[in-house]
Every structure is written in C-alpha cells, then in structure tokens.
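Input sequence (55 aa), recorded before submission:
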Amino acid sequence: MSESDTLWLVGRIAHDLWMSSDDDQPPSEEVEEIVTRINELKRHEKISLLRALVQ
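Predicted structure, token format:
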C-alpha cells in the first residue's frame, strides 16, 4: 500500500469513527488551535503528530 493510500485510509477511518461517536461535545479550544496552525508544520512534523496521537 502506498503512503498516499495509507494516509487516505487513516483519514477515512478517523472520520468514520468521529461521525459515529456518541460524544456530542465540540472539539476543544486546544484542538481548534492545532487545526488553525497545522499549516505551519512540515510534512514530517505532521506525520510525527499523527503517530503520537495514534499511540
């Protein structure tokens, strides 16, 4: 499986889990700040962040 396929699949699985979650709370301010600044991260930093979140 290519890296592109893997990233797409991880995104789809995460989205599906998020949509089917019973948690009705919106994302926290901390997470919103990360999303707002995600474009400041280099590719390898985004991959490291993703790996840290998964562990």
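Checked by second reader. The mean pLDDT is 93.
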